[in-house]
């Protein structure tokens, strides 16, 4: 089977905003307690954060991390998580029905963000609270001094403001499961007024308006049209959330699900541009795909968790090899829309539907999905190229004309290198990819990294055994500007030229 690509330096989509390689930590399950924070662990630092986890996050070079939720933020009082730890209240956390003892809050998380080298994307509670709590939090975090909340932060030991740039106006407010769920009209009005107050405190912030929780919501995409009618001028981004699963065990169909992501992005771009036209606006709305991943493995076991436990193992999907392929395809999809998708957050980062897992008081380890995420984050910086692809195709249960080849390329103009990311969706046959790279004169192949697993799509990693990990023995050759690459059956590939 053969596929073709033309990759030209001059066919540019846009400079990649590194924040598309963002992630997410919610106060949920063992993400915070027992994940990033475990004071009793032998590898904990003086603040109680696990150093082994910090190192793994650094390997991923995560530029921005969304916090503190997720569903959790919609009933969260940020004031519970600041000040002396001994005085912080224990609360019933309503979204996930656990006990939250608030030993980690805004200031600690900002310190952890620094330790891993990431900015924080902070979400405000527009479920049970609103304008007042949001503007106070901006004042607490970003105002230098001389006001009640900025001085409170200083009293709490943080002399310098955190200067948080990116803020989410609530979370999934279209979802009936959300505490304080709202209609599009209600949310649009609240969001625009909250945005106004937050910007009056700090005019330099960026804001994200809540989009639909997924494409199956009955209000999609009318939710975006109505809410943006209110928020268009006041925000910089609209959010998208999407999780895929393979409960039906139909792998060809599962691997095609990034086409659903593509469709979602196109619909939201169209909706934003429709509002832009209606408003005779000159401003272009950007997309923040701030929750995405595979999520279904843990659904069943999550129903058995007792309510009101402390840091239970919720949403602990153990990812298999095919999940890594779909994660790779979703990242490729974001790169294809680099002109509009400026942020994206792999949900989540540690233990909860995550690339990094920990054992309580034990080891930390990498899930299968760690690898495509790391490869794109590390090598996918620069300018996203508009490649021209042609590939044999297949039909699956829900999709027609699914190309076996899913691929794109990023040109790093500073380092003078180009990286091709490619998934072969064919489960039985290799794909020979012939790519015309003649515009990259004098370039050579640096490496061809492959994540493959001899067709065992269900293999998983554990703390003891890393069954799925990349190798560097990919077969590729470059001759007079023509690249020939063997993409093994069911594989993720990273071909680097410089
Ligand atoms: O990431 C897990 C949950 O998925 C988040 O809390 C919520 O926003 C989404 O429904």
List descriptors.
498 residues, alpha/beta, 25 strands, binds alpha-L-arabinofuranose
Topology:
Elements: E1 2-6, E2 12-15, E3 22-24, H1 51-60, E4 64-67, E5 91-93, E6 98-100, H2 106-116, E7 119-124, H3 131-142, H4 148-155, E8 166-169, H5 184-201, E9 206-209, H6 222-231, E10 237-244, H7 251-255, H8 258-278, E11 286-294, H9 299-302, H10 321-336, E12 341-347, E13 356-358, E14 364-366, H11 370-379, E15 383-385, E16 388-390, E17 393-394, E18 402-403, E19 405-412, E20 417-424, E21 431-436, E22 445-451, E23 476-479, E24 482-487, E25 491-497
Parallel strand pairs: 1-21, 3-4, 3-12, 4-7, 7-8, 8-9, 9-10, 10-11, 11-12
Antiparallel strand pairs: 1-16, 2-15, 5-6, 13-14, 15-19, 17-18, 19-20, 20-25, 21-24, 22-25, 23-24
The structure holds alpha-L-arabinofuranose.
Alpha-L-arabinofuranose binds near residues 69, 70 and 291.
């Amino acid at each position: 089977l053969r596929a073709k690509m033309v990759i030209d330096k001059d066919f540019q989509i846009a400079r990649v905003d590194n924040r598309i390689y963002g992630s997410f930590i919610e106060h949920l399950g063992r993400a915070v307690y027992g994940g990033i924070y475990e004071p009793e662990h032998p590898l904990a630092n003086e603040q109680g954060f696990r150093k082994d986890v910090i190192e793994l996050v650094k390997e991923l070079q995560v530029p921005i991390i969304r916090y503190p939720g997720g569903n959790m933020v919609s009933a969260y009082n940020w004031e519970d998580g600041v000040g002396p730890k001994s005085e912080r209240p224990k609360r019933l956390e309503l979204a996930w029905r656990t006990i939250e003892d608030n030993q980690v809050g805004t200031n600690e998380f900002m310190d952890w963000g620094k330790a891993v080298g990431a900015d924080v994307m902070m979400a405000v509670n527009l479920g049970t609270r609103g304008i007042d709590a949001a503007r106070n939090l901006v004042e607490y975090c970003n105002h230098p001094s001389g006001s009640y909340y900025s001085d409170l932060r200083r009293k709490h030991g943080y002399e310098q403001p955190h200067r948080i740039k990116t803020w989410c106006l609530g979370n999934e407010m279209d979802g009936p499961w959300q505490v304080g769920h709202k209609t599009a009209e209600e949310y649009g009005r609240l969001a625009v007024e909250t945005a106004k107050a937050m910007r009056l405190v700090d005019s330099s912030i960026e804001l994200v308006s809540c989009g639909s929780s997924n494409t199956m919501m009955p209000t999609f995409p009318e939710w975006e049209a109505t809410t943006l009618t209110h928020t268009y001028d006041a925000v910089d981004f609209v959010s998208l959330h999407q999780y895929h699963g393979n409960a039906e065990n139909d792998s060809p169909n599962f691997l095609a699900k990034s086409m659903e992501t593509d469709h979602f992005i196109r619909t939201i771009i169209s909706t934003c541009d429709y509002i832009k036209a209606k408003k005779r606006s000159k401003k272009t709305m950007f997309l923040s795909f701030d929750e995405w991943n595979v999520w279904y493995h843990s659904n069943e076991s999550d129903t058995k968790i007792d309510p009101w436990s402390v840091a239970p193992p919720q949403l602990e999907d153990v990812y298999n090899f095919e999940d890594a392929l779909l994660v790779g395809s979703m990242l490729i999809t974001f790169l294809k829309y680099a002109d509009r998708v400026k942020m994206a957050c792999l949900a989540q980062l540690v233990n909860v539907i995550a690339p990094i897992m920990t054992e309580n008081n034990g080891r930390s380890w990498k899930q299968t999905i760690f690898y495509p995420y790391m490869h794109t984050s590390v090598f996918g910086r620069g300018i996203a190229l508009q490649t021209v692809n042609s590939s044999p195709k297949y039909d699956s249960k829900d999709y027609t004309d699914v190309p076996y080849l899913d691929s794109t390329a990023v040109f790093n103009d500073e380092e003078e290198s180009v990286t091709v990311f490619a998934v072969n969706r064919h489960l039985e046959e290799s794909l020979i990819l012939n790519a015309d790279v003649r515009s990259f004169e004098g370039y050579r192949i640096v490496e061809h990294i492959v994540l493959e697993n001899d067709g065992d799509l269900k293999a998983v990693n554990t703390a003891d055994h890393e069954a799925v990990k990349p190798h560097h023995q990919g077969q590729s050759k470059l001759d007079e500007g023509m690249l020939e690459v063997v993409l093994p059956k069911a594989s993720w590939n990273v071909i680097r030229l410089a």
